[in-house]
Amino acid sequence: MSEALDSKFTAEGFRKNFPLILATNRQHATVIGARLAAQAAALLPGQLLARNSTSGLYDVYASGGSSGLDTAKGILLIDADVSATSQVVQILMGGEVYKDNIVGYDSDTPADLNGRVYINGANENIFKF
Predict the structure, then answer these.
(1) What is the pTM of this model?
(2) What is the per-residue pLDDT for 80?
(3) pLDDT per residue as tens digits for the range 108-127
(4) Exposure of 125 by Cβ count < 10 A (0-12 exposed, 13-18 middle, 19+ buried)?
(5) For 58-101, what is the HEC assignment?
(6) Residue 34 pLDDT more than 70?
(7) What's the mean pLDDT in 57-83?
(8) What is the greatest pairwise CA distance in the chain?
(9) Is 116 left (phi over 0), alpha (psi -120 to 50) or beta?
(10) What per-residue confidence (pLDDT) applies to 94?
């Protein structure tokens, strides 16, 4: 159990020297630790996630999916290699994210996450949810 504690938090997604700056305004972020289902390949930060109503695990959002996978619930904050087994990862459940860095974003995402898109002073699309 020591490899994945729910209370573990790193701010990698907010750091300026991180290869992918996913989110902005860290003080507005809501981050949880939640169990992500095993995947065929590693997932990158920004992956849109849904919660499988059958297994209770978070999984990759799929627009035409079933068992809850067709409703976005959050965004993966840091990369996750869950190819062998499920594990606890950090999921952004609220905050401000650079829209272009969200993997799987579609027209249903704003409604699913109760969010909106605005353009900041640097002419960047920010998704706030």
Answers:
(1) 0.82
(2) 85
(3) 999 999 999 999 998 999 99
(4) middle
(5) EEECCCCCCCCCCCEEEEECCCECCCCCCEEEEEEEECEEEHHH
(6) yes
(7) 92
(8) 44
(9) beta
(10) 95
Residue showing tokens 């998704």: 127
Residue 82 CB coordination number (10 Å): 20
Which pLDDT does position 51 carry in this prediction? 97
Residue 34 in tokens = 């939640």
| pLDDT at position 5 over 60 | no
Q: Is residue 55 classed as helix, strand or coil in its secondary structure?
A: coil
CATH classification of 12-128, choosing from 3.10.310.30, 2.40.300.10, 1.10.8.590, 3.65.10.10? 2.40.300.10
Q: Residue 90: CB partners within 8 Å, gap ≥ 6?
A: 8, 9, 10, 13, 31, 32, 33, 76, 77, 78
Domain ranges of the chain: 12-128
